[in-house]
Write a structure and sequence with these properties.
Length: about 280
């Protein structure tokens, strides 16, 4: 795709580098799949588009819309491989925890990160918007993204590696056995769950993230002062989730307002469409 990019980077991906360094990008031809691979949702305002919260794209062409990334419960482990290039500024072997190779080994988190900073877990990392932004903003915290989809796991792996984020680790597996077998009691400061698949059909609802056995494990791994956030756009899923979460935690239901910055691609997209967003914050104590 022809591009005119004002950026100089070292990762072999000038558009991604431009976003990372917050410089101007001008697109001569718009390819929605290519744009969406940046993991940022585009919001149209006339012929000026905002990429994430920082970078302006002046473009010719129609409104750009990318494919969604529903997160951990979207897609399966046989998704097509992601083929983006990788920078050499982060050892991928250090970045990825692979229970398929090592088995479900109890994690020594201080040893894993080389420090005793608080650990934040995101269940369903998708393409990594929240995880990457948080890790960049809070270098004094550690982040673990659990993502079931192999495709999205590879996407976020490349993005984390390109940024050289040393405070991020990734796990590509179903969340329940990972929590149950790999995390010690009271070892996690926060758990975040953004827009998990609602599995609306009755026969599929046993696959939902918000179910008693998963919530029980979340409670176990959270520190006594630990907390969590669950966000969805699906009203029925929210109505079913709220009483379940309240069985395990002290909780508070809220609707994010315009003053709350969007945390994921889905949140940007759904707010732009005028959808209602539902949020539950919960605490162990």
């Amino acid at each position: 795709m022809p591009l005119q990019v004002r950026a100089v980077g070292d990762c072999g991906d000038p558009l991604a580098d431009a976003v990372h360094h917050l410089v101007e990008v001008r697109l001569l031809v718009v390819d929605p799949e290519f744009l969406d691979d940046l993991g940022m949702r585009l919001q149209a305002e006339g012929d000026l588009l905002l990429l994430g919260d920082d970078v302006e794209l002046a473009l010719s062409g129609d409104r750009v819309r990318g494919a969604p990334d529903r997160g951990e419960q979207r897609g399966g482990e046989d998704d097509a491989a992601h083929t983006a290039g990788t920078c050499k500024n982060h050892d991928l072997m250090d970045l990825v925890i692979n229970p398929r190779e090592t088995g479900f080994v109890l994690l020594d988190l201080p040893q894993l990160f080389g420090n005793r900073n608080p650990v934040i877990v995101e269940i369903g990392s998708g393409k990594g918007r929240f995880l990457i932004a948080s890790a960049m903003e809070k270098p004094d915290q550690n982040f673990i993204g659990i993502e079931k989809s192999l495709h999205y796991h590879r996407v976020i792996r490349e993005r984390v590696a390109k940024r050289g984020l040393r405070n991020v680790r990734l796990i590509n597996h179903d969340v329940f056995p990972v929590l149950q077998k790999m995390f010690a009691d009271a070892s996690v400061a926060e758990v975040h769950m953004y827009f998990p698949d609602p599995w609306p059909r009755r026969r599929e609802q046993k696959r939902r993230i918000i179910r008693p056995e998963v919530l029980s494990e979340i409670r176990r791994v959270l520190a006594d002062s630990g907390s969590g956030i669950y966000v969805t756009d699906h009203r029925e899923y929210f109505d079913a989730s709220a009483p379940l979460i309240a069985q395990f935690f002290r909780s508070e239901n809220r609707i994010p307002g315009p003053e709350d910055p969007p945390r994921t691609n889905y949140e940007v997209k759904y707010r732009a469409e005028g959808r209602e967003i539902y949020e539950i914050r919960f605490w162990k104590a």
